[in-house]
Design brief:
- 67% of the residues lie in helices and 0% in strands.
- The protein is an all-alpha fold.
- Among the domains are: 62 residues, Orthogonal Bundle (Arc Repressor Mutant, subunit A), CATH 1.10.10; 208 residues, Tetracycline Repressor, domain 2, CATH 1.10.357.
- The radius of gyration is 24 Å and the shape is globular.
- The N and C termini lie far apart (74 Å).
- The N terminus and C terminus are likely disordered.
Length: 444
């Protein structure tokens, strides 16, 4: 018979083992959700990744949804706590805005890219979850956003940040630029602290060498309009309807969670009929992805070709940004489907469509390099990281900006929103004219 003290020790050991197993399951789930996506991950996958029998996982968690909820909570809670401590410490020690801002950028990026699968899993999966799955986590995410807002508001009151753009827009801009890095950052190219330093400088001071960017007054109505190719015949129209339906499903659910049945339902047709036009889901997705990038590349290239030497570089960059945003939100559902689903595509698709993505990147590199050569943008900025951060800030807007809410209190139209993004990218978030002497000294 066990003595009482031995029984207590055994119980504690069992609890410890159970807690360790539970932690292993959460870690495995976070990795899978990060790289494969929540909808494409099964309980069997999580069990296999954590090294336990498939049935045993239910001893610790009742469902995949319960696991997801804990992963999402950990992903924000740890980062929230760390960022809050940094801001409080900066207040206690009277640290400057720029130093603190740079540390916050590095901390967010470190959690997102290298330290925490939980944070990355949260960022990558939350936008595609149902309202029911999001609901328990809204308050914590809002609280994290509020920490950033209060920090930025203090800087604005100290005349460090520009007055013409709201703190909420600046905060979203900053977080967008950072969050999109999960889709392109390569730790082998340069360390996170290098990326953080470059991003911090760009966000604070913008890319322009002058105090103000003159964009020539380009507005959304100057953007070259995209028109979908005409379809002739019933079969061609049905095929186009299937592709459009697939773009919507892919945009909302991601690649692995998209099925032919879902596409058929969205297209209002029988699932079996889809095979008359496409041999597989892969064939449909392939065309959707190609159309999305082709539309975007053609649109931005056409916009840029309207400018002739000597270039008005600020107006040229602004017009290209207008077009990019126009395709993301209005002109082509294929473009938004490509942008939202790219991060979790199988390698076969990434490789196949890598050429056109690189071509689009090179187009932007040329636009920016020519501007830099003519001293229209700062000479101390490296072009490729600049382009990556800039497009990241633009692309992530598909996860939170809704142009259909324009006119409601606090909501901007797409043209108004795009104009603000252009100002932030070209001129930075800082008020160059009214920044305090201390911050001006700190910046050099």
């Amino acid at each position: 018979m066990l003595r009482h003290s031995d029984a207590i020790k055994q119980t504690n050991d069992e609890l410890s083992k159970s807690e360790r197993t539970r932690g292993d399951i959460l870690s495995a789930a976070a990795r899978l959700f990060r790289h494969e996506g929540y909808y494409a991950t099964t309980m069997r996958d999580i069990a296999r990744e954590s090294g336990i029998e498939a049935g045993s996982i239910y001893y610790h968690f009742g469902s995949k949804g319960q696991i997801l909820s804990e992963v999402l909570d950990i992903g924000v809670r740890e980062l929230h706590k760390k960022v809050g401590k940094i801001i409080q410490s900066a207040k206690d020690e009277s640290k400057g805005f720029r130093e603190t801002f740079a540390l916050l950028i590095e901390t967010h990026l470190t959690y997102l890219l290298t330290t925490s699968d939980y944070t990355s899993a949260n960022i990558r999966n939350y936008p595609m979850l149902s309202d029911e799955a999001r609901a328990p986590h809204r308050d914590l995410r809002a609280s994290y956003a509020q920490v950033w807002s209060e920090f930025l508001e203090d800087a604005k009151e100290a005349n460090i940040l520009r007055k013409d753009i709201s703190v909420s827009t600046i905060r979203q801009f900053v977080l967008s630029a950072m969050n999109w890095t999960v889709e392109w950052y390569d730790v082998d190219r340069y360390p996170v602290h290098v990326l953080a330093g470059r991003m911090s400088n760009l966000i604070l001071d913008g890319m322009c060498s002058d105090h103000d960017a003159d964009t020539g007054g380009h507005k959304m109505n100057n953007v070259i309009e995209f028109r979908a190719p005409e379809t002739k015949g019933k079969a061609a129209k049905t095929r186009a309807d299937i592709l459009l339906a697939a773009a919507r499903v892919l945009r909302d659910n991601g690649y692995k969670a998209t099925t032919l049945r879902q596409i058929a339902v969205e297209a209002d047709m029988q699932a079996g009929s889809v095979y008359y036009h496409f041999k597989s889901k892969e064939a449909i997705v392939d065309e959707v992805l190609n159309a999305g990038l082709s539309d975007l590349l053609s649109g931005v290239r056409a916009t840029v070709e309207e400018f002739h030497e000597p270039y008005d570089h600020h107006a040229r960059i602004a017009a290209a940004i207008w077009t990019h945003m126009h395709f993301l939100f209005q002109a082509s559902e294929f473009t938004s489907a490509n942008i939202r689903s790219y991060g979790m595509l199988p390698n076969q698709f990434r490789e196949k469509h890598g050429k056109i993505r690189h071509e689009y990147g090179r187009l932007w590199d040329r636009i920016l390099r020519e501007a830099q050569n003519d001293n229209a943008i700062r000479s101390d900025i490296k072009i490729v990281p600049l382009r990556q951060v800039m497009l990241g800030a633009l692309n992530w807007t598909v996860e939170w900006f809704d142009p259909n809410r324009a006119g409601m209190e606090g909501n901007l139209s797409l043209p108004e929103f795009t104009e603000m993004l252009i100002k932030l990218l070209l001129e930075g978030v800082c008020d160059r004219e009214n920044a305090t002497a201390a911050e001006q000294v700190e910046s050099h």
